[in-house]
Structure formats: structure tokens, C-alpha cells
Amino acid sequence: FGGLPDFFLECRVIHCGVLIVHSPDVTAVFNLSDEAATERLGGILAPLLQPGLVIFLEGDLGAGKTSFARAVIRALGHKGPVKSPTYSLVEVYVVSSIYLYHFDFYRFEAHEEFLDAGFTEYFNENAICLVEWPERAERCLPSPDLRLRLHHAGLGRIVEAVADSPKGAQCLRALTTAWDDDAYSVTPAPR
């Protein structure tokens, strides 16, 4: 595994014997049994967000990316509707003088569409960016601070959280501390 020391990596066997190797400092899994649990996790994450954070929301169609973003935005205090940005590409919310940009790049056919739309300026130290379908603009997007990978799990969801920066790791540690539920572990979800 790339010469990483053994103490840096942790192995776990989960779900049908799948072996996963990860750094325990930056990965957490949240088992969300229903929509209320998704809203609760979004509500806990919202006050932990700092300007300058970039969060990728990854997962299949219908995995709950927009529902999770809606929970975060509402928990930040937005009272109006929270629409999916699938057709508008971005929805802008101003809450407590913080700009939050909710992007959805599902309709992108080429990475260059990101540049053509002028979205580069939205990613700055004064804004929070939630990005659905980041892989459709990956060559143009800045690296995320936090990745939330949503997976279907029966009637609920599994959210795998991976920090990709020190700010993301700080946010994730605070999230796992605040989430006082047995439905949390440091074992990643199967891929």
C-alpha cells in the first residue's frame, strides 16, 4: 500500500467479507435508517461548516445527495424552498452572511462546461460549496475538504465521510463527536 507504515493504516472486514484499508483519522461511516436520520446528520453538520469548505456529495441517482444538502441548508436557517440545482446547475443561499453554493453537475457532458459557466469564482475562502456529481467537472474543481459518499442501504442510507484536507478532518472529527449514535463507525462503506 504505497509504503505507508502499518500503524497508519487500519484494516476492517465488513459486509460479506470485503476487506477495506483506510486511515482511521479521516474516515467515518454513518448508518442512516430513514429520512429523519439524514436530516439529523445534516443538522449536526451544518453548524460545523466554515467558509472556504468544499464538500463533494457523491453517489448514484436517488442516493440522497439533494436530500442531504437540503437538510444542511435548512439547518443553517434558510426558510424558503431548497430546490435541486439539476437544471440551474447552482442554487445560491445566503444564511447568516455566509454564501452557500449548491452545485449539481449531473448534466455536464464535458469538464470544460464548468469553466464556460464561470463557476471558478464561486470557490473561494468566503463561501461554502456543496457539489453533487463532482466527477463530471473533476478536472476543473478544486480538491474537496470533505467527501460524503451516499449509498442505498435497504430503506435507509449509508454515508461514508472522507476528509481530504486538515479543515475537512477537523470538521469530520467534530461531526463524529456530535453524532452520539450507535449507527456510526470508523469503517468505510463497501464500494
Describe the structure.
By secondary structure, the chain is an alpha/beta fold. It is globular and about 45 Å long. The protein is 21% helix and 30% strand. It has an eight-stranded mixed beta sheet. A two-stranded antiparallel ribbon has the order 1-2. The two termini are 18 Å apart. Residues 1-26 and 187-191 have low confidence and may be disordered.
Our measurement of the CA-to-CA distance between the termini, rounded to an integer number of angstroms, reads 18 Å
- In total, the number of strands is 10
Sequence stretches where pLDDT stays below 50 over 5 or more residues: 1-26, 187-191
What is the number of helices? Answer: 4
Q: State the shape.
A: globular
Integer average pLDDT? 80
> Describe the biggest sheet?
8 strands, mixed
Q: Which structural class do the helices and strands define?
A: alpha/beta
Strand line-up across the major sheet: 5-6-7-4-8-9-3-10
Helix/strand order = EEEHEHEEHEEEHE
Cα-based radius of gyration, to the nearest Å: 16 Å
Tell me the β content: 25-35%
Helix share of residues? Answer: 10-25%
